[in-house]
Structures are given as structure tokens and as C-alpha cells.
Amino acid sequence: xxxxxxxxxxxxxxxxxKAPRGDRKIGKSKDPDYRQLYAWVRRDTYTAMQHKLYDDGxxxxxxxxxxxxxxxxxxxxxxxRSSGRLTR
Length: 88
Hints:
Helix content: 25-40%
Number of strands: 0
Number of helices: 2
Largest sheet: none
Strand content: under 5%
Shape: elongated
Radius of gyration: 22 Å
């Protein structure tokens, strides 16, 4: 019988168990329901945001998703022109 490999994490709750392949969550970068977004913000704003997100136990993706959904809900979209292009 092969010997079990021990690490500094052996014995910690859940540390030595692996999820079966079918139960793994798909990452956002591979999920077709997500799109990547780039934005430039001031350094002081970014630093304050990082601290607040850490304190709240949230990810930046959650924050941006919540903010965009609230903004979209408060500002109904105007009907598009017949050209099929986005309007400003």
C-alpha cells in the first residue's frame, strides 16, 4: 500500500480532501456568462477599495456587478434607433 504524503496542511479540516472533477466551479474567465471589463481609477480610490473589499470579504467583481445592476435599474434605456447600432 502506498504511503500517504503528509504536508503541513495534513489534518486541517478539508485540507486533504479533493473535490471530484464534476463538482468544481468554473472560473469566471471560462464562464460564457461573464465578460472581462477594464477600467482606470485613481490610485487612492483603488487602495481604499481594496481595503474595504477585504474588510467586507467581497471580490471586486461582486462590487462592480452590484453597482452596474443598480445603475441600469435606475436609468431605463432609451429605445434604439432603427440602424441597430448603439446610441449614446
